[in-house]
Amino acid sequence: MTITRSSLLIRVRDIGDSKAWAEFHSLYSELIYRYAIARGLQPSDAEDVRSACYEAAVKQMPNFEYKRSQGSFKGWLKTIVNRRVIDLHRQNREVVLSSHELASMKDPNLNADELWELEWKKQHLRHCVSRAKLEVSDQVAKAFQMLAEDGFSVPAVCQQLNMSANQVYKAKSQMLAKVRALMLSEFSSEDR
Known about the structure:
Helices cover 70% and strands 0% of the residues. The protein is mainly α and 192 residues long. Helix 2 packs across helix 5 (112-134), helix 6 crosses helix 8 and helix 7 crosses helix 8 (165-185).
């Protein structure tokens, strides 16, 4: 996601708006987890980061005022996630210090900004692919998944789905066009 809709930020201020929080979860859950993993945390620690970030969001969102001049939501969320990742690295470092394994630990600050940006973009792509799959036939979505996501060859997709090679290429092209369109226009530029 390159931007977050301001309407979602307003809606999640209401803790009882389960639809808004479900959308929030859909957009950011995987991002937070993958970023924590990319920063060198174990899966269980990444889950802890995700939970801690949700707790922080639930506590802070009712008073959250989106003011573009004060920064982006993306930056706010990154700050929260980074703090939790650094906290876990500090906790883990204390345990590791006593076991003489400190030299093998990954630097928690290594390219944190680049990792965040990369994970943000990957999550935006995953979100747009999921949305695009809802806008095409099941066969087109399945052909795209097998070809682009699962790594099947065109002949294997043809055989599995009883499609011609031309139909498979058209399915891929149709999905890519929808994904591109969603990536460019899903969120308006005023909602950054």
